What does this fold into?
Amino acid sequence: MIRAILIAVTLSTFCADRKAEPANPAMLTIQLTAARKELHLQADRPIVFDHGRKQLPPGAYTVEVSGARPARQRFRLFSKTFPPSETQNAKQYAAQWKGQGYEAEILPFGRAWKLDSGATADNRNLWISVACLPTLEKAKALKAALEKQKTWAWIVPDTAEQGNGKLHFKDARGKELLKVEAPFLFQSDAPIRVSDVDIGFWKDQKKARAYRGTLEIRVGPDAAKQALLELYEHIDLESYLAGVLPAEMPTGWPPEALKAQAVAARSDVAAALGGKHTLEGFDFCGGEHCRAYGGDGGRQKSTDDAVAATRGLVLVAEGRVVPAVFSANCGGWTENNDTVWSSPPNGTLRGVPDFAAKKNPATKGPEAYGMAKWLKGAPQAFCAGDQAHFRWVKRFTAKELSDSVNKRYPVGQVRSIELGERGVSGRLKWVKVIGTQKTQVIRKDLDIRLAFGGLNSAMFMVEAQGRTDARKASAPGNPDSFTFTGGGRGHGVGLCQDGARGMADAGMRYQDILKHYFAVATLARLP
Ligand SMILES: [Zn+2]
Ligand SMILES: [Zn+2]
It folds into this structure.
């Protein structure tokens, strides 16, 4: 039955030329901005290039491209990943797709890290590419067709051929001082400032940023009307972390909390390296899609110190570097990864109480304790110090709530909301919205939060005010408002940032903080 779809999209073998590229694990390539018609650079010291043999004077430059041939992109559909230990299963799975006529391929992603101890942390995964299509539209069509048959797949761009063209560096008066071929690498003794850098992948935010690493301008794919320029930074892992940390945790927080965050961030980077952007020729983008990266300009002494004090340290469990995720405030109990995302359970990302278990009345969990008491009372927790995030209330008029829900689900006017099963932290796994036109079940953390106007978290209860009997839906005077009472901010998986701060304030060390949130993991050092 999958075969029927195959004919409609016409697969070709032009993806067979993909080969693994050797990578230097100490150096990362970060995409700072893409799809630009021009780039604006400001250098306080000479711009040096051609292996230090040539240079441009300091100043403001506008870079444009002429005679460009865009990069050639294709789009792969992946349908599953396997750890290296399940190579045999991966082969069988790929063979099933091949049997249906698909050009299934097994591509290795991720890195195997040699640790200081001599052991290896193997974060490689085998991704099963089931199709490789010349346009995004075709990839989306196949993805949709597969989904109808309950086969889940995700699309990853794959750069088959780099673009090229002539780059023109013009000074502030428009005079051309340099004409070179792209891709073009350059650096400077002082950070180079770049205006209009993409910082919010999801929100299309742009901002001026400064970078100290080696910069590279490439000609990218023609995705946005001849806006082809892309800017990259080549930077070592520790410097990259120093540019990431200030965007993740307030730099004025206690040093032990910053150190815990540094180790978590380094683990997350090491676990993700060689992942989703690899086929496009870089490691991470600089925005929220991967993780916010502020470059050199955003660095602070406190976060630099936290990175230096934990140099190379990562969390390891079950022979792998832990993808040590974090959220702002867990609400008193952290959550299992599989409650929040559609990923298989990770033995290291299990929900834990965010308090010292002894003597705490809620020690059997929020549901056993009673959700109303948990959310409306003042339970003790390491993250209770940030009261605005630890417990919150959000009120909607019936119209406001219906408007919000109907942006995503056409249910009509919301009559009532039924709360489903909860995860260990009390976060809802699903809710049922009963509307005048439709009843809609909404699953998973982010979708639940977005349906109700972007709630702080999915740990909440709802009370309707006014006449709330759904059976009398046709009568006037249905609920006129809804009150959400909740706890926490963010998905709640992994490290709780407010909790880390609370523990640091209580005199605990970063090792204790990490042990608390990632109980089965141990600290190890990358060489
Ligand atoms: Zn990204
Ligand atoms: Zn917490």
